[in-house]
Write a structure and sequence with these properties.
With about 120 residues, the protein is of the alpha+beta class. The chain has helices at about 1-10, 15-40, 105-115; strands at about 45-50, 55-60, 65-70, 75, 80-85, 90-95. It is built from 3 helices and 6 strands; from the N terminus they run ααββββββα. Strands 1, 2, 3, 4, 5 and 6 form a 6-stranded antiparallel beta sheet that branches. The longest helix is centred in the N-terminal third of the chain and has 23 residues, at about 15-40.
C-alpha cells in the first residue's frame, strides 16, 4: 500500500519539494509498519483478562499492558484487537487469524473480547 501511495504521489502535478517531502513521509510510515509486522516490535504472546486488560509480549521480550477498546472486531476468520497501551496517546491494532494459535485458545480469545467487561473505576 505504501508503494501504491508513492506511485500516486509521483503521478500528481506537484512541485518537486512537495513530492520529496511526501515520499519521505510515506517511506517512514512504511518502515514503521514493516517494523511492527516483522520486526522486534511484533507481538509474540497475548494475555487477555476478563476485565479486557491486555498484556502484549513482544519478540524482543518487552511487555506492554493496556486496555482493549470497544472498536475491536471479532469474527470467525479474523479478529482485530484495538487497544491503548497504558500511558500511550494513540491506540494500536493487532490482527489475529485462526491459524496463529490453537483453535481452543482462539475461541477463548473471541469469547473474552465479545463478553468481557471493562473494569469499573474504584471510587474512594
Amino acid at each position: 500500500m505504501h508503494a501504491a501511495t508513492a506511485v500516486l504521489l509521483l503521478a500528481l502535478p506537484l512541485p518537486p519539494e512537495v513530492r520529496a517531502a511526501g515520499g519521505l513521509g510515506i517511506a517512514l510510515a512504511g518502515a514503521a509498519a514493516l517494523r511492527s509486522i516483522a520486526g522486534p516490535a511484533r507481538a509474540a504472546r497475548l494475555a487477555l483478562g476478563l476485565d479486557r486488560r491486555l498484556a502484549v509480549t513482544r519478540r524482543d521480550g518487552r511487555v506492554r499492558t493496556g486496555e482493549v477498546l470497544g472498536s475491536s472486531c471479532v469474527g470467525a476468520r479474523l479478529t482485530t484487537i484495538v487497544w491503548r497501551p497504558d500511558g500511550a496517546r494513540f491506540a494500536r491494532a493487532l490482527i489475529v487469524v485462526p491459524d496463529a494459535m490453537p483453535a481452543e485458545a482462539f475461541r477463548r480469545l473471541r469469547v473474552v473480547l465479545r463478553y468481557g467487561t471493562p473494569a469499573l473505576p474504584v471510587v474512594a
